[in-house]
Specification:
Elements (H helix, E strand, L loop, with lengths): L1 H10 L46 E2 L5 H12 L10 H24 E5 L3 E6 L16 E3 L3 E8 L4 E8 L12 H4 L2 H5 L6 E6 L4 H10 L6
Antiparallel strand pairs: 1-2, 2-3, 3-4, 5-6, 6-7
Length: 221
């Protein structure tokens, strides 16, 4: 009951005056809105900062397995006491393999495979462009939706080449180089899909490459 009385008093605070004797409240003073150079500017809405969207870039780690294996095979042909050592063998097999291994080591050091939101690419180690493809032209950057197949040769457990096929390259280039056989009537009859063929040495972590192809939905036969 005390709480109810307190609330009532709070609501009707002020002296008890007969309504007829209460003074009429003065009309509010309307101040003119200032104009001219001294007028306060109208507040503007806070500008919204444009958000900058950056594509997630996954750079695949390099792998020197192919380079080291090639150099090792080349060395076997020239190691003193090796049953494979001979002047002919050292020249015909040893030297080319060793040189190939050094070339692959150079490529492994200077090139990287990358995955972003939309495409797979071959770039320099500083992530700058490698320029046009030396075989068919165009950037070494291929949209995932244009893939028709990918694989590793001779196998995923013993990779020497990274292979993929795409339809982004203009169709008049599809039969250049190994594409002639890959797009032959016999290959198509055996289940192959037409497109531009690409082969790259396995200079990157193949397990990570396969995972990238799978995560981004690249087609595979």
């Amino acid at each position: 009951m005390i709480a109810a009385l307190s609330a009532a008093l709070a609501f009707n605070a002020g002296p008890l005056v007969h309504p007829a004797l209460r003074p009429t409240p003065a009309a509010p003073v309307v101040r003119p809105t200032p104009t001219g150079p001294l007028a306060s500017p109208t507040p503007l809405a806070s500008p919204t900062r444009a958000s900058t969207t950056r594509c997630a870039l996954d750079v695949i780690d390099p792998s020197y397995n192919l380079a080291l294996g090639s150099v090792a095979l080349g060395a076997i042909f020239g190691v003193p006491g090796s049953p494979l050592k001979s002047k002919v063998g050292a020249f015909v097999a040893g030297v080319p393999l060793a040189l190939f291994g050094l070339f692959i080591a150079f490529q492994t050091t200077t090139l990287r495979f990358t995955f972003d939101d939309d495409s797979f690419a071959l770039v320099k180690s500083d992530l700058s462009s490698t320029g046009e493809n030396v075989v068919v032209g165009g950037e070494n950057d291929w949209a995932y939706k244009k893939f028709v197949n990918y694989d590793f040769f001779p196998s995923e457990s013993f990779p020497i080449l990274v292979y993929f096929k795409e339809t982004q390259t203009p169709e008049d280039q599809w039969n250049v180089g190994p594409g002639e056989q890959a797009n032959s009537a016999e290959a198509i009859a055996n289940g192959a899909k037409p497109g531009q063929v690409h082969f790259f040495p396995a200079i990157a972590n193949v397990a990570a490459l396969k995972s990238g192809f799978e995560v981004h939905g690249c087609a595979k036969i």
